[in-house]
Design goal:
- The chain is mostly helical.
- The chain has a domain at 26-77.
- Helix content is 60%, strand content 0%.
- α2 packs antiparallel against α3 (56-77).
- The radius of gyration is 18 Å and the shape is elongated.
Length: 83
């Protein structure tokens, strides 16, 4: 018996390039969500700077906070349509 093909991480219906790579106008509600995400990320990043010794681990943690903030904002922008 052959191995089944692994399930793709993102199926074609979940990734519509026309939708994903189009500018999505920020509504007042989305702007408020972006601000909340950024405020929380700033507080967490500042805590890392204050409490974690300078190191490659701290740098990586800060990079991941930045990435998480960006991905959260992208989810808001795309109305959660990308799974």
């Amino acid at each position: 018996m052959g191995k089944a093909d692994p399930e793709p991480l993102m199926s074609k219906p979940d990734f519509d390039p026309e939708y994903v790579f189009t500018h999505h106008k920020a509504t007042p509600e989305k702007l408020a969500r972006y601000e909340a995400i950024h405020d929380a990320a700033k507080r967490f990043a500042q805590m890392l700077l204050d409490q974690v010794p300078e190191s490659s681990d701290r740098s990586e943690a800060l990079r991941l906070v930045r990435e998480a903030s960006m991905m959260a904002c992208a989810a808001v922008s795309l109305d959660g349509r990308l799974h």
